[in-house]
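queue> holo job accepted (glutamic acid)
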Amino acid sequence: METHIKKVLNNIEECSPGQEEFYQAVHEVLYSLVPLLEEDEKYDIHNILERITVPERTIIFRVNWIDDNGKIQTNLGYRVQFNSAIGPYKGGLRFHPSVNLGIIKFLGFEQIFKNALTGLQIGGAKGGSNFDPKGKSDNEIMRFCQALMSELYKHIGERNDVPAGDIGVGAREIGYLFGQYKKLTGEFEGVLTGKAINWGGSHARKEATGYGSVYFADNILNKYDKSLEGKICTVSGSGNVAIYTIEKLYDMGALPVTCSDSKGTIYHEKGIDLNSLKAIKEINHQSLEVYAQVNPDCIYTPLSHYPEGRHMAWDIPCDIAFPSATENELNLEDAKRLVANGCMLVNEGANMPTTPEAMAYLKENNVFFGPGKAANAGGVTTSQLEMSQNASMAKWTFEEVDDKLRQIMRNIFNTAYETSKEFGCEGDLIAGANIAGFRKVADSMIDQGSV
Ligand code: GLU
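queue> job finished
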């Protein structure tokens, strides 16, 4: 089996050079499937590994937009429609200068299994652009979104592919993208999720990834007769995921003490001031330096004071760490520090934030681990709840959506846990989540023949 997996991985590296994050994601998933692949040869007979690691369709296009000086700027737009075996393509759009094909493929690949784990009928996709929203005016953001949608609209639709937000894409961007889609197609339809409440959005979508991540952590702790009550938590990031992780942690009686952005990290021993964090990040789009100015009792450490790849948040003694910013933000050194400080759980709010070496070290040291494709599935779950409401023209209350989210996060945990037990690695939620997500998609591919 290992030889087969190696062959598939070599082939991917040959056919798609330079896509490091994509190899990393595929590597992690494929090796964790060994017990399933050995138990049932149908996956081999149907060449599922070869098929599932290649996107059904990859769209790359030029996006020309006009900046405030009247100059034409050019970026690249991507949409990777990875797998539609269990439902229409679903996954976010990321606007960040680091975006390239390898990043979008890694995210799209992860999304297949994450979406399958939710138990809902949604396939896997991801898209975005290397456009950097930082420092752009509102009008520039609008013109960029309109330009991107002028090409993307040809490839998406409410029953075909439903994008949403990710890093750099929130309610404002979804609004501009939706407006342009409607103008070009003449259709008011649920083609995007993360919409504003007034025109088809769902309550609790904004909060969902962060809340879901905390619900997932709570399920892990409860399994081992522990709870979030009184736990010191470190959180990285200060976007949607981090902010609503912090909010829910307070609700559950925990104490979140850190957050970070691309410039630096805040350590606030008495607890992050949620109101000032929201005002700075959600309303004024400012840097955390401003948080440090208005909260003089916190410690602010610029990222430049830290060696490349290290993160000050992981040096702070904590019970639980919530990496909620971006991929590979928690490395082996960080993992060592967390273990030395007595951290009991790492719960991934972001996609693939923990490096493979860090993951292995945490496992060796018996730290509980909530893998991103399970722990951060609350966002896409609530996107699907938004799609359901759009399709039936219903409007559920915040409490109704939040209840469903909480229930689905519990189901995801149970599925991952029970699957790990079934395959002889009880409590290994990485293997459990990968095997459960893969099995559902692979079985559906087999049912649907050689398409
Ligand atoms: N970008 C989010 C994720 O990584 C949400 C995707 C969606 O709502 O479609 O799952």
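queue> The chain has 18 helices and 13 strands.
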